[in-house]
C-alpha cells in the first residue's frame, strides 16, 4: 500500500499508510491518527474509516450468516483489498477537491 501512496507524492503518505493499516484494529483509528495531517490525508483517512464501518457492520455479518466458505484470514484479505480500493478512490478525489 505504501508504494501506491508514494505515487501520489502525498505530504503524509507514510503516516496515511500506517493509519490505514491500523484501521483493522479499530475503525476510527485512521482518522484519529491523521488529525494533524494535511487535508488530503485527513480526507483519505476519513474515507477509509467510513469504508471500514460499512464493511465491518454490513458485509461481515451477512457473510458469516450465510454458507459462504470464508474464514477470518480470508476476511482480512478482503479488508486489505477494500482499504486499498478505498484509497485508490479517495486520494484522487481529495486531490481534485482540495488542490
From TrEMBL:
UniProt keyword annotations, A-Z: Membrane, Transmembrane, Transmembrane helix
Transmembrane domains' residue ranges: 39-64, 76-98
Top-level taxon: Bacteria
Name of the protein: Nucleoside transporter/FeoB GTPase Gate domain-containing protein
